[in-house]
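Data deposition worksheet. Section B asks for the primary sequence of the deposited chain exactly as it was used as input, without tags or linkers unless they were present during the calculation. Section C holds the resulting structure in C-alpha cell form. Section D is free text for depositor observations; keep each observation to a single sentence. Incomplete worksheets are returned to the depositor.
Section A, Depositor: J.P.
Section B:
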Amino acid sequence: MVAVKTQALYNEILEAIESNKLPIPSQPEIATELQEVVNDPGVTVEDLCKIIKKDPGLTARILRLANSPLVRGRVPIQGLDNAIARMGVGFVGNLAIGLALEQMFKTSNKLIAQRMIAAWEHCSYVACICSALALQNAKLPVDQAMLAGLLHEIGILSILSFAEKHPEILADEQTLDKIIETHSAKLSQAIMTAWQFAPELRSIPVELYDYYLKKDKADLADTLLVAKIYALDDTTHPLTKLNRAELPAFKRLGLDPKKSLDHYSELKEAVDLARKLLG
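Section C:
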C-alpha cells in the first residue's frame, strides 16, 4: 500500500515539475555567479575574490580551510586572494558554491525545517568524508568530491517544497520518507542538470547506486557511495544493509569493507577536521 501511495505522490511531483507547477529551485545568486566564473577559463583570482567577499561568512570559512592541514598549507594565509592562489580558482569556486547552497535548506515551517536541517547536516558530513577520501587518492579532485557530497541530495528540496504545500503528505511521514529515499537521487540529477553542472558531476547522485559497475579505477561515485555508507552507520538506511565485501568501491579506494571509518585514524582525523571547518 505504501509503495503504491509513494509512487502516486511521486508521479504527482513529477507532473508538477513537468507542468512548471513545481519549479526546480533556483540557486542562490552568489552560487550562480560563482558557477559562471568557475566555468570561465579566463577567470582570475580577483574575479573570484569580488564574488566571495559579498558573503563575509563564506569568506571566513574559505580562509579557515586555507589555513588547515586539509590543504597542507605551511605558511599562514590572511587574505582571500592568497587563499585562492594557494588552493586554486577551481577548488575555491567549487567549495564556495557548495557552501553557498546551505541557505536553501531553510524554511519557516517547523516540520519541514527539521528535515532540511537533517538533510544538510547529512550532506555536509558526507562531503567531509568525500574530501578526506579524495585526499588519500591523488587522482581524485578534492573540491569536486566535496561538492558532490554537498549536492547529492539536493533533490530533497523539491520534495519538501511540494510537501510543504500539501499537508496530507507531511502528515504521512512514512510515505514522505519513502519518497525521499527512493526518488531524491533522480531529482538531484534533474536539479543539477537545470543548474548546468558538468555532466560528470550531475550524474553522480544516480550513479552511486550502480553498486557493481565495473571501472578501472576509483571515481567520485565510488567516493560518494563509501562516504554515504560510513555516514549512515548506526542507522536503518537500506545502504547499511548492503554486503560491503561485495562492493567494488571499497577495493578501488583501498579500504577494508569490514572496517568502519573509526578504524582509519588518519582518515577519521581528516573528516573531523573538515567538519569543524565547514561548521
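Section D:
The chain has one domain: 2-278.
The mean pLDDT is 86.
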